[in-house]
Design brief:
heterodimer, A: 96 residues, alpha+beta, SH3 type barrels, 2 helices, 5 strands, B: 6-stranded mixed sheet
């Protein structure tokens, strides 16, 4: 599902052009290949798609969106919730 | 099957927002001069509409037509056969994304190939190919690339890295497709009943909203670019209805928090570097000119389709004669009207394109069917 939960940039590895991001408590790496050099900073909110940062979003929008997702995710059990967060940017079809 | 009408939207506070939109839409819809048929292009929207019971919240003069925006569903069998044949080669590791692994071709699915000993892997990101290639220097890693505009730049970024790092054992089999061409093909059909489109937001994060400008301008079909949350979808439906009652025909963006007119220019430039437009045959819709993105000739040495040309099947395989997916995608029929829906054609043994992935219209109806 293309849930597109906003992620927050935690650190940046410029040598490998990779950022570490936090999606509702789950940390992972994301490629910076699609972003202009230097345009992504620590603390920025971003949307991911299949392992890449796709764009930045405003903090205000991100926090509002996170609030909605938290409510949706609160209705799930722990296992489903973790799976939904981890797969949130991974439309099963790599799709539209 | 067997689900009850569980009001998922009751479980979070947004229920109020969704119900408020439902009321606005119901009031506005009374002013419509004729029923309207909205196509949600993307499988992600189909999923949201079915899962959150959006159809039950809408008045009887607003209908949905479930579109072709699921890259797994539209993959023709002959290309799945390519993946199968490649995976059965000695010293090949076939890598792909998502549901692709479950879809049957003429000889079976990639899952079946794996049970026969093929090394088929499902990855989260195309970048995972780099690690697999590094760990298996004696093998050729073939990435079976699928997806719309949203996913194409990620494949381009993989190839960019392969070239820059001079990785010798990664090849690509490219099956990328684009959204505007099938939309155009659908509305060019005289029997098409679509009045307006719900455009997928993720595609526009990359390509910008500009790719839809032709639809209100040249085809007189309003487009609203929508996010995937249920609230986004309800708001977008409301925006479409308002356009009709106010006699407007425009491109509007509901998902303003992430979509701009121009999109992600760096991603678009990466795409242009490695890909160019090619014809593509869509399962359920047939040949659509210039609807695919193929590797440019100068990258033939990374193109598995060229390198393994001699062993790849060339024959085109028609859709099953009882399958009405083509009509479903055009809005001429809905899944339960198909004679094999839920009987011969099920998610576990799909015959038609709309049943093959969880985001296809038939699959969504099968799963949430008794809610409709």
């Amino acid at each position: 599902m293309c849930l597109s939960i906003p992620s927050k940039v935690v650190s940046i590895d410029t040598e490998n052009n990779i950022a570490t991001v936090d999606t509702m408590g789950i940390q992972r790496n994301a490629g910076l290949d699609l972003m202009e050099e230097g345009s992504v900073q620590i603390g920025d909110y971003v949307l991911l798609h299949i392992g890449f940062i796709m764009n930045k979003i405003d903090e205000e929008d991100a926090l509002e969106s996170l609030k909605v997702y938290r409510e949706i995710l609160d209705t799930m059990d722990e296992q489903d919730r973790l799976a939904a967060i981890a797969e949130s940017d991974n439309c099963p079809n790599g799709g539209a | 099957m067997g689900l009850e009408l569980k009001n998922l939207y009751d479980d979070f506070r947004d229920a109020d927002t969704i119900k408020a939109y439902a009321k606005i839409i119901a009031t506005d819809a009374q002013k419509l001069s004729h029923p309207i048929n909205i196509m949600e292009v993307c499988g992600g929207h189909t999923h949201t509409i079915m899962k959150y019971g959006v159809l039950q919240l809408l008045p009887s003069n607003i209908h949905f037509v479930h579109g072709p925006g699921c890259p797994v569903c539209i993959m023709p069998k002959e290309r799945i056969d390519h993946a199968y044949v490649l995976s059965m080669q000695e010293n090949v590791i076939l890598v792909t994304l998502g549901d692709m692994i479950k879809v049957p071709g003429s000889n079976g699915s990639l899952q079946d190939a794996r049970s026969k000993g093929a090394d088929v892997r499902f990855v989260y990101s195309p970048l995972d190919c780099l690690k697999i290639a590094q760990e298996n220097p004696d093998k050729t890693v073939i990435f079976f690339a699928i997806g719309f505009e949203t996913t194409t730049p990620m494949t381009a970024a993989l190839l960019d890295t392969v070239i820059k790092q001079d990785v010798k054992n990664i090849l690509l089999h490219v099956n990328h497709v684009t959204v505007p061409e099938p939309m155009r093909a659908l509305i060019s059909d005289e029997a098409c009943i679509i009045d307006a489109f719900l455009g997928p937001s993720h595609v526009s994060v990359i390509s910008g909203s500009k790719i839809y400008e032709e639809f209100p301008r040249d085809w007189h079909k309003p487009v609203v670019v929508s996010g995937f949350e249920p609230v986004d979808v309800m708001q977008s439906i409301s925006m479409i209805v308002k356009q009709f009652i106010e006699n407007r025909c425009e491109l509007e963006v509901e998902y303003k928090r992430a979509v701009t007119r121009e999109g992600n220019l760096k991603a678009q430039a990466l795409n242009d570097t490695y890909f160019h437009k090619v014809d593509f045959r869509w399962r359920g819709l047939g040949d659509i000119p210039q609807s695919g993105m193929g590797l440019r000739e100068e990258y033939d040495r990374y193109n598995a389709e060229k390198i393994y040309d001699a062993i790849l099947p060339k024959e085109e395989i028609d859709d099953h004669k009882l399958c009405i997916c083509g009509d479903i995608l055009k809005g001429k029929a809905s899944p339960p009207q198909c004679s094999i829906f839920g009987t011969a054609c099920k998610p576990t043994s799909p015959i038609g394109s709309c049943m093959v992935s969880s985001e296809g219209a038939c699959s969504a109806y099968y799963k949430y069917g008794n809610l409709v």
